[in-house]
Amino acid sequence: MGSVLARRLPVCSLIVLALLGGRARASYLDDIGLTQLQAEQGSALASGTGMRVCQVEAELDANTQSYTPDPNSFVSGKVFNFKSGTYAPSWHATDVGEYFYGTWGAAPGISTVDVYAANSPAAPLGWMGNGFLNTGNARSLPNVEAGRIENHSWVGAITPSSSNTEILRRLDYAINRDGFLAVVGLNNAGSGATEMPLLAESYNALSVGRSDGGAIGGYTALEGPGRVLPDIVAPMGATSWATPLVSGSAAVLLQTADNNPLWTDARSNSEVIKSMLMAGATKQQLPGWSRTTTRPLDPNYGAGQLNIYNSYHILTGGEHAASTSANLPGTSLTDGWDFETITSSSTQRQYYFTVPAGCALRDFSTVLNWNRTITPVAKYGLPYYQWNSSLANLDLQLSQASNFVVGSTVDASQSPIDNVEHIYRGAADPNLPTSTNELGPGQYALSVSANFAGTSLTSSDYALAWRGSLMVEDPAQVALPGDFNLDGKVDGVDFLIWQSHYGTASGATLLNGDANGDGNVDGVDFLTWQAAYRPGITTVPEPAAALLLLAAGSLLRRGRKRLA
Known about the structure:
By secondary structure, this protein is an alpha/beta fold.
């Protein structure tokens, strides 16, 4: 392909692996919300079953070209396709696999793994070369990616440097064309790097750092200088392990979307999964996390720390289209998403929602994400001689509203160069005084706007994801106490919501059945529902009978607890 890999480094070292081991497993799975999600969903939780993915690895040994995971380290039934030839197994590739599709991560059900060497003169089918990207081959597009997720726990650079730009643009082109999610690790601090590694500067990939701030974060220099990275972090001691932990979490979301015929947009467009992972990220563990209206992410921590529990509930909150005359459904006030196209003839989309009287929306997080467009251009008789880049400029604004008319601005994210916007209203943002961290009662509008000036584009797809916690602050002001799904009536559906969360000891919201705002779901909340209950068509125990049943089980005691 006319160029060689000048620097091939795994994103970790052996000593880091020895320090991590398997002993920390429970801790990091707790930290990313997987333990909580498994307790809530049980055996119904997706684990990537039947999914095909891709793992790209740097060769550890220039002589043996070892880049492959050891198949003997994984449960039988997994299929490994070694796309760059068969060599001795790599300990690095094996451990990356354990965190991605093995028992150390979220997606042990993944069944098929295509494995590439990143690049090597001795391995002509390297991922950057004619194994996949076909870098330097002006007669060939990138090969079609059959996997749903590509994991890149390696960093590198190519000589000549012009090939770096081509690699990034070919990758972004392939992501747009094939819809897969590319998850790429940043370099670890202390590894000698002082700049962004090669794939981190991809617009359309998801870049991963470390929750301890031990990765090279900051700003891009090659493609779109000044964009902030990483996109997200994970609580691991090396980005080699943080990256597959994010990849496995993405597999959980993708299989969950596969199981719902209405969620085609989430299955087919990596922007959607990327926005869910970023909007679900938490900040409370990250000292000094901050954003501004023109810098959507933190230069060390991105959108925050991976939390698959939050991201899963964003997905299952459902897809909801923009509207100029309707609020988001009540149960989607706290979790939801959309995939939409915005055009030069219609440059705004609104998502209205109403926080009920007596309530507040806390820890509100929303992420807007869109891909750049790459167009191959012919020259000198070569069909793919050049790769042109175009990016729409999209903005995100949160405003007060009244009767579906947008009013004063509450917050905004308006980066002129990034392809992500992020608004966060939570206690972890040091730029916000405590009194403004929550959204009080009233109507609000999330507005997406587009500017196509200076581009050849007339439209752009985008993904929008949001989450928050709806809390009761003044029970006396709540219009319909016991209306736990905010559908305007108190009926058996609300009883079932209360029943499914009964015993929650802390952190419960109105939508979980907490009617009085104390964070618990208990007998007091049942009595609130009972007082407001109006019989409907839903078949549930009659209020008096239900109360007797629950009283017999010591309903009013708070000794029995379980996760929400």
